[in-house]
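User: These chains co-purify. Model them together.
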Amino acid sequence: MLTKMTTTALMAVLLSGAGACTANSADTSAQKTDEVSNYTKPGAAVTYSHNLKSELKAGEMTNFNLNLNEYYGEGLLIVNLSTEGDLTLYPSSMQKRFEMVDEISHDMDVSFTPNSNGRFYINVQAVATSPSGQMRPLIFSIPVQVGPEVALKPNPLMKTLPNGEKIIEMQAQEEIK
Amino acid sequence: MPKQTLPSGALKISGQITFDLVPFNTSTNGLNYSAITPTSARGVTVEAVDAAGALLSCGVTDSNGEYEVSVAPNTDVRIRARAEMVSDSVPSWEVKVLDNTSSSALYAITGGIASSGSTDSTRNLNAVSGWGGSGYTSTRAAAPFAILDPIYDAIQKIVAVDPNVVLPTADFNWSTRNRAANGNRANGDIATSSYVGNGQLFILGNANQDTDEYDRHVVTHEWGHYFEDQLSRSDSMGGPHLTDERLDPRIAMGEGFGNAIAGIVMDDPFYRDSSGNQQSAGFAINVETNNPTGWYDEATVQSVIYDLYDINNDGNDNITLGFGPIYETLTATDYKQQPLFTTIYSFLAELKSQQPSSAALIETMAAARGINSTSADGVGETNSGSITSSLPVYKQVAVNGGAVQVCSVNDNGVFNKLGNRAFLAFTAASAGAHTLTMTRSSGASSRDPDFILYKNGTVIRRAESAAGESDTATLNLTAGAHVIDAYDFFNLGLGSSASGDSCYNFTVTR
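Assistant: Joint model of the two components:
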C-alpha cells in the first residue's frame, strides 16, 4: 500500500520490521494531516463551508455559496450577513431564515463586489433558536482578499523599550494627589 | 502578593490601578455598558519610569489594586501598569496580555510625567473601556486588564489548594482586530477564542461581531484548556464542539471541564458569551443544570464536575468536595500517566480512588447523568448515545487472539463526534515486535482506515497510510497496557473525501 508518510516515518517502519528500532519510543513523525488542535469556545451546533474563490478582482462582482449545517431537530436558524471594508453586498444587508426540521443543510447564494484592493470581511451571524426561545449563535467572518496581501500596520501606540521589549502604552485616566 | 518594601530615603508613590469592567446584562447575556464599574487590577506589575523611559522601580498591585513604588525626590516620573501578572517565587506564574497583530507587544497603561516632589504622593490610574455611548470611540485600554482579572481568581483558586504550584507561562493574545475568521493569526484572523497549545491563548476583540475580553467565563474556559495542557493531561483532539452534540468522550471531558472550571473559578455557574452589534446579545450555559445525556456530552461532564465542587446540593447531587479534590485528581501522576484516555470515566475513577468515602455519592450522581460505568475504562456502560458501535467504550483485543470489530460512523458529524473514532485496548505481556492490523470488514467501501497507538498518553505509532482496505503497523513494544484510537480518516472531515459508515477487523499479533 502506498503511504502518505514522510521519509523519516517510512524509514522507521522499515527499521522496526528489522527489529532495530527503539522499543516504545514516542512517534515524532509528521501527522498525516495537521489535525485541528485548537481548543475553542462553545457555540451553536452549526457548522459552515463556502466556495468563495481565492483570487478576486476589484470591481468584479463575485458569487459564492454559503452552506450551513445545523444539528437541531426543530427551531429556526436566522442568518444575517454584513460586510466590513470596501465591499458592496447585494442586497446591502442580507437575512435568511431557515426552518430547522429534518434538513440539516442550508444554502445561501451570496453576491458582492469588492471596490478596491485589500482584505475585507463578510460577517455572518447565524443564530439557532429553539422553540422554547433558547438562542445559540455561531459568529464568523469570511475573509475576502483582493489583490496582494499586505501586512497589517502595527498598533500605533507600540514602542520599543531600551531593553528591546515591545510595549503598547495606552493613556490612562490619572488622578494625582 | 505583597507590595515592595521601600528603600530608606526614597519617596513613596502609591495608588490604585483600576480598569473599567463592563458587566453582563443577565437578561440578554450581552454587555451592559451603562453599568461600567472601575474595578481593581489585581496582581499586575506597576512601574515608575522617568521621562526618558528608564525604569526606576516597580511593584505589584495587591488584592485591592493598590501599589507602592519608590522614587528619588523631585524626579520627573510616570506610572505604568503592565498587563501582566508575574510571580517569580513559588508559587509562581507568568501571565501576559499581548497584541498578536503587533509583534506580540505587551499592553500597558501609563500616566503622565510629573515630578515626584518632596513628599509621598498618590497616583491612581484607570484603564478606560473606550466606550462612547453607541460604540467604541477611543482606545480600549481596559480590555487587557479585564482578561487578566478572572485569571487572577483562577490562580488564587489554585494557590489555595497548592501553595507550591509552578504555573508555566500563559500568553493571552488579544487585539481589537482579532476576529472569527480563518487565516493568519498575526493579521487577527484567529477563528475564535481558543487555546492553541504551548501556553498560547487567543481572545476575540472585533467589536460589533464578537468580543470576549469581558466574557469572563469564556476567558477562563480557554485558560482551563491551558491548565489541562500544562498541569494535567488532556487527550482531546480539540476542534469545533457545539453544545447539544454527541462528542468523542475525550473532547467532552476537556470542554466540559473548561465550562465547569469557569463556573468554579467565578463561583458563578452561568457561562455567558456576548456578541453581536454593540455586544448586546449573547447566550448562557448554566453548568449547574443536571444534564443527564451521558459520558459523551460536554454538558453532562460540566454538570458533574461543577456539582462535585459546589455547595448547592440538588437533585442527584448530594456531594460537596470543593476544588481541592478536583485539582488533586487532575494533577495526580496516576491520572496524567494513565494508560487509558482522559474521559469522565478516568477522571471519576481517579477521584474515587482519592476520595473513597465519597465513591458511592459520586457513582449515584454519575449514573443519574447517563454515566453508568463505575470504572476508568467504561466497562458495563449501557448508554450508547444511539451509536451502537460506541459500546463497549474500549474494545479489548487479545494479543494473538481473534479479530475485534470496530466501526467509524458519521451519524453525529465528523472529526470529534461520538462514533467517528473507536477505542481499543490490549496488553503486551512482554516486550517484542507486535503487528497491528485494521482491515475493512463491512459498510461503505473505498475508505481510509487509520489508527494511532498510545502508551500512557504518548503516541507510539501513527498508522496513517493512504486510502485502502487496511492499515498495519509492526513495531517493538514494551510490556504493558496500550490503547488505540482507530478511525476512518474520511470521517475526520480533513480532506475532500466523503464521510461514511464502515466497520473493521482489528488484530494484534506478535
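The CA atoms of residues 193 and 203 of chain B lie 4 Å apart.
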